[in-house]
Amino acid sequence: MECSNKHYFDENGNCAPVTETCQVFDSIRKICNRCYEGYKLEFGKCVLDGGRDPLCGEWRNQACVRCSEGSYMRRFGCMVINSLCKEFDFENNVCVGCYKGYELNHDRNCVEEEAK
Description:
The protein is mostly beta strands. The protein is built from no helices and 14 strands.
C-alpha cells in the first residue's frame, strides 16, 4: 500500500499530507529536508523566515533579486513606492511624476500643490 503524491504514512498508519511549505520531504524519517523560498528549515519543519524582506518578490541564493509590485530595490532591501507617485523611474529609484493635485519637491517626493 502507498500514499498518493505529497502524502506520507503518519504514526497511526494513515496517509497524511506533506505541508505545502516543504519542497523535499523524507517520508521514511517523516521530516522535511528542504523548504520553499520564504521559509527556513527548523528541526525538520518549515517555518516562516522572518529575516527576509516581506517586500521581496523573488529570492535567489539567499538574496532578493526582484522587489514585489509597488516597491523598488534599495541597497538594504525593498522600499515601498509612495502612493502619491504616478510615474516611477526604476533605473534611478526616484519618482518622476505625481498624481493630480500633487507635485514633486526638491527631494523627489510628491507633496500637495501650492495654491498659485
